[in-house]
Amino acid sequence: MRVRALHPDVLVATSRIWQTTCTVVRSGDEAFVVDSPVLPDELEVLPAVLEQARFPFSGLLVTHADWDHLLGRLAFPGAALGCAETTAARLTGRPGEAQREMRAFDDEHYVERPQPLTLGQVETLPVPGRLEIGGEGRELELHPADGHTEDGMAVWVPWAQVLIAGDYLSPVEIPMLSEGGSRDAYLATLARLEPLVEQAAWVVPGHGEPLDGARALAILREDRAYLEALPGDAPLPLARRTPAQRAIHERNRERAA
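The structure assignment produced for this chain is given below.
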């Protein structure tokens, strides 16, 4: 797991698997962990990373309900999980889905975990809306971010000019229309995120290293052009033409048809 500071109040940890990102945001005496790394050893050291950096843990946030973003409670047992209403509805409507998908991944890759995943208390957040952090008048802005899946939110950290985008704007993965996702909703999310990307010093995608604002804006334009060409044989962005991305592309075509 790689950890880097984007700002004195923002850390990003990138998992060794799928480059899944976990972002920690601090203000005053509070720090929220947004999403999660994937592997057991990464989750085990995460509390020590926060302690060493003097980021006082206060809660978990998730951008959406894909299982690889939900593992924060394995690092911080007992913590509540804050999410958009759409994500809470997905978790309620598909009980046990995240646990089954995590077990399938673990079985395939011979991963052993010290304990099963329990989601515990889920707190619904107002999206669009704001979340106070640190008691110093600072707030996180919460923006709807559906399209990749049927649920989700992006988090804007205004004082640090950092956008936590969830599974959007990835430098390693083309737009993915998962089950319940929508090409039109994905395009609408890109339109909502674009003004934030234009202001951003950094954008943290759900998968891949953090991007400076200019590169993230270029990826947004590539992703928009790709989605607008679906369900036709849309050209894949030049840097994302691997066999794995071509397989995602074929599934996207089927779902967009």
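Interim note for the steering committee: Residues 2-256 form a domain with the Metallo-beta-lactamase; Chain A fold (CATH 3.60.15.10). The chain has one domain: 2-256.
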